[in-house]
Amino acid sequence: MKPILFSKFLLWFCMWLSFTTATGQNTPSQVRASTAASNVIVLDTVFTIDGLDRSRKVRLYLPMDYDVSTKNYPVLYMHDGQNLFDDVTSYVGEWGVDEILNKMKLDLIVVGIDNGQGDRMHEMGPWDHEKYGVSEAREYLSFILNQVKPYIDQNYRTKGDRENTAMMGSSMGGLVSHYAQYSFPDVIGKVGIFSPSYWYADEIYTLTEEKPVLKDTKLYIIVGSKEGNNMVKPAVEMYELIKKSGHPEKNIFFANVEGGTHSETFWKQELEDALRWLYSK
Fold first, then answer.
1. Residues near 59 by Cβ (< 8 Å), separated by ≥ 6?
2. Which of 74, 108, 147, 229 could form an S-S bond across to 164 if both were Cys, CB 3.0 to 4.6 Å?
3. By three-state DSSP, how is residue 269 classified?
4. Residue 232: Cβ within 10 Å count
């Protein structure tokens, strides 16, 4: 390398190193410590999604008293597992599911299904989309309900019936959770729908209108006022449609939360209230 070019490279490298250190971005010598609680594990089993031939990591939260009790627990299946328990694996911050549940002492097993990163839109999009391509939601949900769920029920002390099986997600995860509830109402009895991407397909309204879920199904839907009209308006319309379908209002919760943004920060701050409502008697 020529002396002038080397000097410029050295100057650039020093500036980059100074910037990343000052802003807290990782350098080769910096490794963030895991924030996952001790009762969160990553399953050793290698899961492959039938029909898609993709491997997928599954994370598991067990209640604090799991090892010293003989109880069976309800199970909540959540999307975007990387963002649920650990700041190290999260995209822009974790939900803090483990810390919140440990504080609440809620008897609940949580199964976090990692997203497919570049395949996320395909896997969570229930219908083919002109911009985002072919839907793989059927394969993705079949993986959760027909591969992961039986494994969890066989290897852990669960209550595997419909009333004790729930699903929760945000954004596209909220959309696919809604779709799962209405497509498999005999399997899922509760659903948490955060900032749902109802804009993705008008078919979600048709499905909701034509296939009402069982009356005891609990639906928790929230959106943030700062998410924009393309998020808020469809969520309000969906809430009105569910009420119109005859679903008991006591089993629907809807809120347009003032100041809420499309972010893990918003979903984290709303999680405890959602869990209390979904699991209240």
1. 40, 41, 42, 43, 81, 84, 85, 111, 112, 114
2. 74
3. helix
4. 17
pLDDT in tens, 63-76: 999 999 999 999 99
Please enumerate in sequence order all residues whose Cβ is within 8 A of that of 248, keeping only pairs 6 or more positions apart, or say none.
215
* Chain-centre distance for alpha carbon 143: 15
Q: In DSSP terms, which residues pair with 220 in a beta bridge? A: 192, 253
The number of CA neighbours under 13 Å toward the Cβ of 137 is: 24
Write down the residue that tokens 């050793």 correspond to: 44
| Mean pLDDT along residues 18-39 | 58
Other CB atoms within a 10 A radius of the CB of residue 239 amount to 18
Amino acid at 229: N
Sheet of strand 165-170, all strands in order from the earlier edge strand to the far edge? 40-42, 58-61, 109-113, 75-78, 165-170, 190-194, 218-224, 252-257
End-to-end CA distance of the chain: 72
Residue pointed to by tokens 């097993």:
109
Could you report the per-residue pLDDT of 234-245, keeping only the tens digit for each? 999 999 999 999
Dihedral angle over CA of 257, 215, 157, 35, nearest 10? -10
Rounded to two decimals, the pTM is 0.88
